[in-house]
User: What shape does this take?
Amino acid sequence: DQCRGKLGLSKRLEARVQELAAAQAALAARLDGLLNRITALESEPITPLAESSLRPPEFIAKSPEEPAPAPRAIEVTVAGVDGFEGLMELQRAMLSVPGVAAAPVLRFQGGSAALTVSLDQNVDVEDLAPALTAFLGRAVEVESGADEALALRVASSAEQTVERPGSGV
Assistant: This one.
């Protein structure tokens, strides 16, 4: 019994040694391939970088004389918001508009929401309603507006549905 146990152990050890030898051979072949590649790379000529490629792109390098214009904040009230989920969708829609930096909710009650919207200086407040209409898939109309305050109304889903690009709705 003891002899059979030693014989079984011996065969398992022999099989493991063969596995390790095969792994060692594969690693040696991989190492040879890497050494050949390094040798080939060392023999390739080095091309110096052009001086222009060392300068940062213009959109990164801003001169200190030209600070970015500060965003302006406007209060946007929106009527016709369907519940908390509708409020969150409205906020996502607002943040998807190019040039909108932030849109925290000030208050929400009875289907009416107020948000403080931070806009880049080049964003026209009249562009918000069409952008929101495209995102929400429902008409958003301007009820009143000025540079510092804007009142919008979102059509209920029963009133009007606008086709979203690529959605088929």
Q: What stands out?
A: The radius of gyration is 33 Å. The chain is about 40% helix and 20% strand. The CA atoms of residues 29 and 120 lie 59 Å apart.
